[in-house]
Amino acid sequence: MTVTTFSSREFNQDTSRAKKAAVEGPVFITDRGRPAHVLLSIDDYRRLTHRPRKIADALALPGAEDIDFDPTPMTLGLRPADFG
């Protein structure tokens, strides 16, 4: 993985070069010499942000109260134990 750094000015002048560099690894974009942004390929971004979603997390999202959720009751089909 190659890490590349661009100043804001370099990034603005040659965005296509920054995009090509992002395929090889993260591209740090600096403002006044300090890292301010990171450009990643979509594959790298998805790899970093992919987490299995838990239902509690999904229900905590804004607007989740508008989601219709009416699950079918689960039946287990239990029968009494035969001790004979």
UniProtKB/TrEMBL annotation:
Lineage: superkingdom = Bacteria
Offer one Pfam family short name for this entry. Answer: PhdYeFM_antitox
Q: Report the InterPro entries cross-referenced here.
A: Antitoxin_Phd/YefM, YefM-like_sf
- Briefly, what is this protein's role? Antitoxin component of a type II toxin-antitoxin (TA) system.
Member of which family?
Belongs to the phD/YefM antitoxin family.
Protein name in the entry: Antitoxin
